[in-house]
Amino acid sequence: MKHLPVIVICWILLALGSVASQSGRRSTKPAATPTSTPAVEATKQTPAKPAERDRAQLAAVPNEEYRCMDDGSVGVVVHSDEAEKVFAPNEVSIKAKILSRPKVEYTSEARRRAVEGIVAVRAVLLANGKVWSVKITNRGLPFGLNENAIHAACKMEFTPASKDGQRVSQWLKTEFLFRLESSVFRR
């Protein structure tokens, strides 16, 4: 009899838990597999474009380095001892020169919330004329703006740096400004 109140409380909590799970909210558990054939299921789904799919998977974090892939996607950099030497701007004879930078795009959520600011990045520009990796060096911005800045940095075009007459890889700091057209801070 001493344990009866504890048993009753446990029973009530279990009963409330089963009622709460039937509250009308969608469950996070996967639904039971449908009985339709796999071929029918495959035709119902529309595949996302590769760039949209990759951007959705990336959640850029400041001070993490992201590699620019040839297909437009981005991956986390894993450093190795065999990496090519990357020079600082003051270590080269002729610095890398940016020829074009794509305009950064707003995400719909960032535009809706009127997020503005700067995403500062450090990009590694390879001797072959491609951007190797990008790292956010400031706090960055929320709602996908960090990711869009990384994708824009990966698409920069430049002339490579040179040292002693040879093309070399160089890192470069640059910033991407996110400013809404309706901003009171617009110049």
Explain what you see.
By secondary structure, this protein is of the alpha+beta class. Helix content is 25%, strand content 25%. The protein is built from five helices and nine strands, in the order αααββββαββαβββ. The protein has helices at 4-20, 38-44, 50-57, 108-112, 145-154, and strands spanning 65-68, 74-76, 86-87, 97-100, 117-125, 131-136, 157-159, 161-163, 166-178. Strands 1, 2, 3, 5, 6, 8 and 9 form a seven-stranded mixed sheet that branches. Strands 4-7 form a two-stranded antiparallel ribbon.
Work out the number of β strands: 9
The gross shape turns out to be elongated
* CATH homology group of the domain at 51-178: TonB
Strand content: 25-35%
CATH architecture of the domain at 51-178: 2-Layer Sandwich
Mean pLDDT over the full residue set = 76
Q: What is the CATH T-level topology of the domain at 51-178?
A: TolA/TonB C-terminal domain
The major pleated sheet works out as: 7 strands, mixed
